[in-house]
Amino acid sequence: MIDGFLMRAGLGGLGLVLATAPLGCFVIWRRMAYFGDALSHAAILGVALALAVQAPIMAGVLVVALLFGLAVLRLMRAGDSADTSLGVLSHGALATGLVAVALLPNVRVDMEALLLGDILTVRWSDLVLIWGGGALVAGVLRWRWDRLLTASLGPDLARASGIDPDRESVILTVLLALTVALALKIVGALLVSALLILPAATARHLSRSPETMAIMALALGAAAVLGGLGLSYGLDTPAGPSIITVATALFALARVSRKAA
Amino acid sequence: MNLLTLSDVTVRAGGSLILDRISLSIDPGEIVTIVGPNGSGKTTLMRTILGAMPVSGGTITTRPGLTIGYVPQKLPLDGSLPLTVARFLALPHRHSPKKIAGALKLAGLPDIGDRQLSALSGGQMQRALLARALLSEPDLLILDEPTTGLDQQGEAGFYRRIEMVRDKRGCAVLMVSHDLHVVMAASDRVICLNGHVCCHGTPASVASAPEYRALFGHGTGGALALYRHDHDHEHHGHSHSHD
Predict the structure, then answer these.
(1) Min Cα–Cα distance to chain A from B224, Å
(2) B77 with A153: Cβ contact below 8 A
(3) Which CATH number is B82's domain given?
(4) Chain A environment of B15 (Cβ under 8 Å)
(5) For residues A106 and A76, is the Cβ–Cβ distance under 8 A?
(6) Is residue B132 part of a domain?
(7) Rounded mean pLDDT of A135-161?
(8) Model confidence at B40, in pLDDT bands (50, 70, 90)?
(9) What is the CATH number of domain A2-256?
(10) Looking at the predicted structure, is the pLDDT value of residue A209 above 90?
(11) Is B84 a domain residue?
(12) Which of A80, A161, A216 to mutate to test the interface with B (most CBs of B within 10 A)?
């Protein structure tokens, strides 16, 4: 029976990495780390909304993260300072979401699970959603890979090649929102962007092409999930933070070994 | 037929007028250089032609099927994206090795396809960008201040290369420059921009136009005179290439 929940946790984590690893590469290349952060914070507001109207939590998170992401994209395109407006919106959404959840009558919410995830309670039905969503994100990235890559090199360069960089930004934002919704249960709102950034950043030190970087990120993300779950099981530590701890350790290792090489 | 015709194109951004009724056209095979001081709308004009800026007045007509090759000033690449020259040249479309070799040769880049883009020198980077633009077999090559960061020799060499590319491929060239003196030798026409087209014509006629002197001569008169002097002599003699 221990095997059962651990296996589901492991499978859930791996399904999520399928989305976060390649998507995280784009987050790094396009310097969207703060954007990912803001989206995941907005997810808390989505949770409150879902609880209020008694909708599935994942759907509420998806809708709010999507609207939030597209709104921020619009603001940035209008020339607002991305750094400041993201900072304001991100923490605004997190705080408002937490207040809204607390205000909901007759609802008791496990705040820790929201913020840090609760991977050990993943059910089979969750797994179907996570793997379906993860495969969808990975599939779209694979499909538009060259276009997304060209757009990441520069919007004008993309335009001259007949690619609409704005459309590619929207696609990435939609994929990010979907990933945040999938990730909430696994690593929680605070650690979603860690799972996006850490495997990709580690993979950077080990790759010479964008494609190998994405594949290395997949492998490293999977190693972090399995290693983190092992750590969590062995030392009785919270699972989400344990996964990120292992991912951070892998990053440090890659960094140091590269310096030594 | 013209490759590209702008008539009375007006562009506003953030409520202020950036381009004021710009009219110009580019014929097949000609080299047109746009010069103007900082803030004169050079980059906006180029981005408008690429379709990156909404036009608030006037029309842009392109010849049907026009292919544009674009050489940006630089790539906003930091170290986060590992990319070899060969992979870069294959974005967004893959090409045959033969075609890639041809483009590299024309751009004056030795066989460094497996080198990381981030490890290239400024001059090599410019030629890699040029090679990528050539792979789309453009009718019109657009270059945005392509020699920024190159020294004078490198700049002159790059411009000679552009001229050679035009001669071999027959593509038109639209180049944006903040610097008149080196460009002039290769250009068929120079358009001097300052929000509006303040003067245009052959390099020599623009250089002597009072509007041009008012823009460039003021404050930098001494340096400009020195440059011109250099240019008069360099035009005939020097032909060594520079890496």
Answers:
(1) 32
(2) yes
(3) 1.10.8
(4) none
(5) no
(6) yes
(7) 94
(8) confident
(9) 1.10.3470.10
(10) yes
(11) yes
(12) A161
